Fold:
Amino acid sequence: MYYKYSDYLKEKYGEKVYKLPINIPVTCPNRDGTKGYGGCIFCSQAGAGFETFSPITPIEIQVSSNMEYIGKKYNAKKFIGYFQNYSNTYLPAEVFYNNLLKVSKFDNIVEIAVSTRPDCITREHLLYAKKIKDDTGIEIMFEMGLQTANDEALKILNRGHTVDDFKNSSDMINEYGLKAGAHVILGLFTDTKEDVKNTALFLNECRVSNVKCHSLYILKNTKLATMYERGEITLKTKDEFIDEVFTFLSYLNPDIPVQRLLGRAPEEETIFENWGHSWRKIQNEIEEKMRETGFFQGQGLKLKNY
Structure:
């Protein structure tokens, strides 16, 4: 099978750990003209989070409200504060530090996850993050959007960063004793199975602490939606996507936990999402195929190298 992130957290903390989404008023250098305008072709004006408070809601209220709700619903006692939308290091390092500090004050927070771009992390950000970790014992993880280790595909996706940007940032993060996570998109119309394999091998080289996989869904009012409606792109089939999941996991170091295998978005905001199936149905299909075939994460690697 594969190494689930939920299992990793349970092993580390002795019980199930839940993420608390946090939304702050921040943008992205690919939107404000620093790197480009309009953002990535798949990103909506609202960013990537669909279940968050308004960004003007104080961080402390977001954390306490979500902690109370999720705590009661799931009898949860340990949490990860997750800065989710846009690039959460795309702000002065002192402001970033204060944001982390506010979350770290809560006793039940065991980790803080920061979603960001690989070209938006400085050593000053990392020094402040390390200070939080050293002072509180709370792990700090930077979830960076790589999407693919194919530079030509990154240009088509209008990402505005390179594969080397990700490698440089992950090396810095590891140097400071912090965690580097990666987001990748499987089923990209830009990528071949060889590209998928190379992305997994690249993440092994970067020594990431975990990976979150997304399927390619198409949000309304995005550049990708326009391309799709004009017939400029050909989407992968569900079977092709599942095949890419197997390829990716086959070459991913088995010690790297996987947060999820595919993404989702509100149905009313998409024109294509997971071939009309629920993410759970497709995940179950993938896992059933793994059991039937005896698949295991990393089976394509020469494990002596890892």
Notes: The radius of gyration is 19 Å. DSSP finds ten helices and nine strands in the chain.
